[in-house]
Structures are given as structure tokens and as C-alpha cells.
Amino acid sequence: MSLTKKQKQVLDYIKDYIEEHEVSPTQVEIQEHFGFKSLGSVQDYIRYLKGAGYLENDANSVRGLKPVDPNESTNENTIAIPMHGSVAAGNPIEAMEGQETIDIPAHMVRKGRHYALTVSGESMIEDGILDGDVIVVKEQNTAQNGQTVIAVIDNEATVKRYFKKSKQIELHPANATMKPIIVDHGDFQIKGILVGLIRTY
What we know:
The protein has three helices and twelve strands. By secondary structure, it is an alpha+beta fold. The protein folds into two domains: about 5-65, Winged helix-like DNA-binding domain superfamily/Winged helix DNA-binding domain (Arc Repressor Mutant, subunit A, Orthogonal Bundle), CATH 1.10.10.10; about 80-200, Umud Fragment, subunit A. A hairpin with a 2-residue loop joins strand 8 and strand 9. Helix 2 (about 25-35) packs across helix 3 (about 40-50). It is globular and about 55 Å long. The model has no long low-confidence stretch (mean pLDDT about 85).
């Protein structure tokens, strides 16, 4: 199936975003980039691109878009990664623990080590990260401004958007009713960045 100019622009934006950030854009980010009036428009483009064989969409993942070659058949494999307990999307809670594993779609995993956490709290709901969701995290100790990170402050873990300012680090919730966490001391670590989300209904 051939694409219209706009459909190709949407597909190219998704590809370029993944190349730069190693995760796919959210529907909100696509909407904001193109100035669409509603998420329905984004969903229409995703639905067409998926139907035409140019895109896979994991409906259980906030960042579940994956460009594919329509001329190649796809085979969705799974991979087991460690399940490290809970992380707070609210006030920090106990740091990650656990020896269990969980099977996730293989396309969520890139180079490097990955692990999964169960989200507790509602501070990231405006990014579509809900209480009880399982998030897939790429293990690393650095992040770019705006990325969603797993951070440990005074041995307690939280999931937030990361922003490094001149004199402090700010961890922003995606919930208009909550305030950022200001980090201005040394006992702070980044434990990874969010690369996927799994939701069980």
C-alpha cells in the first residue's frame, strides 16, 4: 500500500525519534510535533500505517510503536529480563529488589542490560504510566533532559522525567497536581531509562 505525504512524514518522524532516543514517541509527542488537534488523528495514522504493514503497535505499551518493512514477515519473539520489584510514581519508596524474571516482547530490548519494575502511584499518569503497570528499563547511569528515568534518592527509587539544571537536578512528575522533586545533594543515582511499558487488563 502506498503512503500519502503526511503518512510518510508521520512514519519518518517515528523512525527518526527511535534513532535519536532509542524509544518510540508517545502518541502525545506525535500529536504535539505535527500540531494535530486530537489524539484521534494520531491513532488514525497509526492504524493506517499498521494496516499497511509499515508499523507494529503494542497496544499495552506507551512507547510500543515499531517501524517494520512491509516486505518482510515479522515474528514477535519474547525475552526474559529480571523483575526488580516496585518503583514509586509518587514519593520514593524502597529501592528495587527481587530475583524473578518476566517475559517481554523482544523489540523492547536494545543493546545493554534491561530490567522490569511494577509502578506504584499516579505521578506519571499524564504520560500514560499507571499504577500497577510494568515498565521496561534500560540500565544506565546517565540520561538526557526530558527522558523518563528510574532515579534513586537516599536509597529510595522513583520514576520521573529527568531535567538537569545549572545548580540542581529536577525530577518532574507527569501529573499537574504534583510538584517536582528537587535534588541538590550528592546521594542521587540514575538507575536506567524507560524504554517500554506492559499493561495487564
